[in-house]
Amino acid sequence: MKESKVLNLALLTMKNVTITFKTSRGDLLAIDDIYFELNKGETLGLVGETGSGKTVTSLSIMRLLPFNAKISGEIFFDKTDILKLSENEMDEIRGKKISMIFQEPMTAFDPLFTIGQQFSEVLLKHENVSKEEARQRTIKMLKFVGIPEPEQRFNQYPHEYSGGMIQRVMIALALLTNPELVIADEPTTGLDVTIQMQILNLMKKIQKTSNLSMIFITHDLGVISKMANKIIVLYLGKILEIGTVADVIFSPIHPYTKGLVSSIPTLRTNKSERLYSIPGNVPSLNEIGKGCRFYSRCPVRMDICKDKTPQLSEYNSGHFAACWVANKNKVG
Ligand SMILES: Nc1ncnc2c1ncn2[C@@H]1O[C@H](COP(=O)(O)OP(=O)(O)OP(=O)(O)O)[C@@H](O)[C@H]1O
Ligand SMILES: [Mg+2]
Question: Poorest-confidence range of 80-94, 107-121, 178-192?
């Protein structure tokens, strides 16, 4: 983190970002004062259970939050605060410099147009290319992500592709304009295990062959450990832990991260133990109190945890956790 400041490598900085939703039940604090940096060529894994705010975070970077959202803080992309850009300026960045691979690819495509038409439209919008050049670029990209007979596939509609295929096409679309940042929101959820592996391998290939930065979102810490350099553990809109893969997976600090790690079969060292699962359910956003958000489920909670929110504190260089218990052991 220090190094990136000196060399100024950060491509994206989320600075004290807070997102609230106006609802009939009152205001919901979906993202509470998060801060992180993403360097060029780095993959950041964003992990958290359902409702933790992963998608909301990514939509904020695309400036695609729903109308009832209110955002404060700063989001620097290439040193520009994108929250201050006009809609036209943002339109230049979205889908060109920052692109997104969505959770449900079928819904991301228009069923009424062929894949070729939809790819060409993006290229014609963002780049000064002819129709034929757009066709060639599309075919090349479909080939890159492993779509057989891309010339024929160019003229097909989304429903003519299988689930695994359409996810590859979604990835191809996200890469089409050589973006600097790709946000992949649960790109393998809902796919069967074999296809999931193929998609992850494809994304690994992309990481190796380009210098793009990636935010990889999932609730599966096992998947993240294979894909990311750095991990953020999110819980009810708060960052509970942040560090390298080695830090977070092999030396977790927060009781929540410890729970997540020991509930993943492939990460456990002692395979004979019963698979652990974190007791209780994630409370809803309007149930949380003023203390630590993990309080209701924490196996080692103390009194202070109920009343006061712990701040992130650094344990090793770049390894931060927000936990009163860990903090007590650190100091004492
Ligand atoms: N338009 C909205 N109005 C009100 N609340 C919303 C809205 N969109 C999202 N939320 C709330 O914001 C919180 C974070 O949602 P988000 O979709 O980011 O979670 P997530 O971590 O992506 O979960 P999942 O793993 O299920 O995809 C949730 O409590 C959700 O209900
Ligand atoms: Mg989501």
Answer: 178-192
Name the residue of 22, 27, 54 to mutate for ligand 1: max ligand atoms within 8 A of Cβ: 54
Distance between CA 297 and CA 31 in Å, rounded? Answer: 20
Residue 172 and residue 185 in one domain? no
Q: Is 67 touching ligand 1 by the criterion CB < 6 Å?
A: no
Q: Is the CB of 66 under 6 A from ligand 1?
A: yes
Q: How many whole angstroms from 61 Cα to the centroid of ligand 1?
A: 15
Same domain, 13 and 68: yes
Domain-ending residue, one of 158, 176, 194: 176
- Residue 272 pLDDT > 60: no
Q: What is the pLDDT of residues 8-58, one digit of tens each?
A: 669 999 999 999 999 998 899 999 999 999 999 999 999 998 899 999 999
Do residues 138 and 176 make contact, with C-beta atoms less than 8 angstroms apart? yes
**Does 199 score more than 80 pLDDT?**
yes
Give the least confident one: 9-18, 106-115, 275-284: 275-284
Domain containing 184 equals 2-97+177-331
Regarding whether 304 and 160 lie in a shared domain, the answer is no
Sheet strands (E) in the chain? 10-23, 26-39, 43-47, 69-77, 80-81, 98-101, 181-185, 213-218, 230-235, 238-244, 313-316, 319-321
The number of distinct structural domains making up the chain is: 2
Residue 266 has a pLDDT of 65
Pocket test for ligand 1, best of 17, 18, 20, 21 (most atoms within 8 A of CB): 21
